[in-house]
Amino acid sequence: MNKIVSCEWCSSLSVEKTTGSVFWELPDGTRAIEIEQTPTFQCKECNMEYQPEEIVSEIEDQLYLIDTSKIGKVITHEELMKIPRFLKKNYFRF
Question: For residues 88 and 5, what is the distance between their CA atoms, to the nearest angstrom?
Fold first, then answer.
């Protein structure tokens, strides 16, 4: 069953699931990368585009747990999530 999603900004129910590019600073602060085809919500009422908290956490955890020196300037969300991790999970997230 599909979960009803409301806009995190204006609470409208006119939210559409889509994909988009996001720009992320690497955890060590050395540079930023573009992550293409990232799961995104787009509100038809206020036109806000945003990533749900689960996706934000997923990206942050992955970037903490992989060798980011092997990532180029641009990567797809799917490619990023397939990179093998040093640890199974982020043990520092509470």
Answer: 30
